[in-house]
Amino acid sequence: EGLRLAVIGRPNAGKSSLINAILGESRLLVGGAPGTTRDVVEGTFLWGGQPFIWADTPGVRKKAKVSGVLETASVGKAIQVLRRVDVAILAADAAQGLGDQDRRLFNLARQHCEVIVAATKLDSALEADEDPSQIISKFFMAPEGVAVVETSAHTGRGLQALRQAVLETGRVSSGQTLSGIKAWGPADLRRCMKGTAGLRALRLAGVRPLRFSVEGLKLGSMGIQSRKSLRRSLCEDLGIFGVRVLFDDEQGRSE
Fold first, then answer.
1. Is 47 within 8 Å of 163 (Cβ atoms)?
2. What is the pTM assigned to this prediction?
3. Complete DSSP assignment for 209-230
């Protein structure tokens, strides 16, 4: 038993180094079998004494671009993995800058699971007073926020914080941090109420991802920006961060 993990990333972003650092060995998986570059490799391991189920995505690290043509073998393998995991860690080299391929990978992963960003060299890419979570959440256009951890595969810096971020993301997406509450009224939703006339109540309809039913609002008539604002306010009101939030009229990922 344990959270299911995968690491994704564009070429030369430090994905393989991060995998080695987390596993503590040269890409050997306990309980897993080696495969070709097109195979999915899975296994179990202990990370800080906590059991995790590992899924590697070798196809994603190929140099072919991730595009809208999902029939390609590499992207197809990645989707197979991402459908089975709870959390994907997106490895990013901040010194190289985030690009369109990072955004495509993030959006691809977030259709199926939660995403955390493990970034190297943040200090060289951001100003001292900048919040990396805010900057990167804005880049990925994620109103619910994105957890960002600075890591170094060579020194081991940030690996413990990354583990904690993975566990916390798992807790939030499973609804555990909501303290068993299933419904909230206007008095609990002060930020949501400010720009949302007619909101009467909010109910938790599902977890992984968190899905809410909303009473008193015509969600179908709300534009993308209004929905993003509602998501952002909802996360602030309920004290949740960095996980997908869907409403009961949505079939796919959040906009």
1. yes
2. 0.86
3. TEEEEEES--GGG--HHHHHHH
